[in-house]
Amino acid sequence: MAKSASFRCTSCAAVTSKWSGQCDSCGEWNSIEEEKALSSGPASKSLGMRRGKALNLTDLAAQDTPPARTLSGVEELDRVLGGGLVEASALLVGGDPGIGKSTLLLQAAARFARNGLKVVYVSGEEAAGQVRMRAQRLKLTSSPVLLAAETNLRDILTTLEDEKPDLCIIDSIQTMWADHVEAAPGSVSQVRAAAHELTSFAKRNGIAVIMVGHVTKGGQIAGPRVVEHMVDTVLYFEGERGHPFRILRAVKNRFGPADEIGVFEMTGRGLAEVKNPSALFLSERGKPTPGSVVFAGIEGSRPVLCEFQALVAPSPHAQPRRTVVGWDGGRLAMILAVLEARAGVPFTGLDVYLNVAGGMRVTEPAADLAVAAALVSAREDATLPADSVIFGEISLSGALRPASQTENRLKEAQKLGFSGAITAQTAKPPATQGMALRQMPDLASFVTEIFGD
Ligand code: TYD
Ligand code: MG
User: 136: which residues sit within 8 A by CB, 6+ positions away?
Assistant: First the structure.
């Protein structure tokens, strides 16, 4: 057996052979922890029944049927799962504390139970009474979900062995404790061991397992990212405190597309599905103001409209501020540089703030042109045409590249009452759906045409 490395960074999961105060890989301080070996777990005796036996790919193809899936009936959840929960699959649901993970999973547990699955909900954070109170608030007490308040992994595996459920929810993986690992709950070694034991036990016994994981301020599942590699599907539950909207995003999915989102609203009676996110993200838009742009985006299989807001002001600082919420900071820096170099719009000495309204987070490069438009609009104090949506990718040369699914974006914009779109030139003119389309070859002509000289 290979000698196991003995130290691991809790932030980036890098492995080192000796302890140090700062992680060489990610630069985090005080994040290196000793790892305990995983030699004699409760599951190890039953592992390896077919050790080393190779199977022929053609035989496998012949006997394999697609895995069975169960729908929860919550469309926003089923879509993110890739069309329902796959039997015996392992999932990780990450998110900030307090964002609503327990609420989401308790509601999902009740729905799956109502659709015929036997569900065990293991809470390591709350007592059974507290979970029941939450279920009462959510009006779920009539659903046949089994509750267990437990943190000892051995006891949990025994419960699962006895109950033989179809689905087990672990809330959260950071509270689980494997007694054969000498480390505190929440440490890398514990989280890794518990996730490993649970997933391998669940796979062997045909149980689907959903693990909740808290996220660090850096945006990673606290403790090891190795858990992300162990599971089939990783979902993030995101949202801004103070905003009721929550987005469930698939970042990895072995059984479906990885860029799908589901949109929810946190209400006094739990999470409600949002069937038309575009209307929601645009609902707070008042009359047109400089710096405000509507971006026609695509999230997974669905077009979603949202508003970018920019504010540009003379900076009192030697180094002007660049603050961004809901979009990538590096990408903002790139667009500022391209605006300056290729379109003659400098931002030197100016503070720049960029925000995506409603707590949405956009990752598509097709939002580049919307960001550039918001920035120039704010800088020039000039409003953009209120009846138009904007999308297109910007390259370093300043050229505009067409976005995928132009027609879907236009259709959604039209549905929400927009009559025009500003975008990149395409080789073949898209079906405009009756929308007034203004297509530009590059950023310089966009700035001249929309904002004049
Ligand atoms: P919770 O699911 O406990 O978050 P997590 O498990 O991610 O830590 O949700 C906590 C917040 O949700 C809490 O601030 C209260 C709020 N909430 C509602 O607004 N409505 C509800 O029906 C419920 C159950 C919670
Ligand atoms: Mg919770």
Answer: none
pLDDT tens track for 381-437: 999 999 999 999 999 999 999 999 999 999 999 999 999 999 999 888 888 778 999
Domains of the chain as residue ranges with CATH: 1-35 (no CATH), 71-275 (3.40.50.300), 280-451 (3.30.230.10)
Per-residue pLDDT for 47 more than 60?
no
Quote the ligand 2 centre to 97 CA distance (angstroms): 7
CA nearest neighbour of 249 among 74, 93, 72, 91: 93
Distance 214 CA to ligand 2 centre (A): 9
Q: Among all ligands shown, which has an atom nearest to the Cα of 99?
A: 1
| CA 409 / ligand 1 centre spacing (Å) | 33
Best residue among 93, 171, 266, 271 to mutate for probing ligand 1's pocket (most ligand atoms within 8 Å of CB) is 266
- Ligand 1 is surrounded, with C-beta below 6 A, by 95, 97-103, 134, 137-138, 266, 268-270
CA distance 107 to 412: 30
Write the pLDDT tens digit of every residue in 307-322.
999 999 999 999 999 9
* Most informative mutation of 93, 103, 141, 241 for ligand 1 (most atoms within 8 A of CB): 103
Q: Please name which of 194, 205, 200 lies closest in space to residue 154, comparing C-alpha atoms.
A: 194
Distance between alpha carbon 373 and the CA centroid of its chain, in Å?
26
- Interval 366-384: pLDDT, tens: 999 999 999 999 999 999 9
Quick: pLDDT tens for 184-238.
888 888 899 999 999 999 999 999 999 999 887 666 666 667 788 899 999 999 8
Other CB atoms within 10 A of residue 419 CB? 14
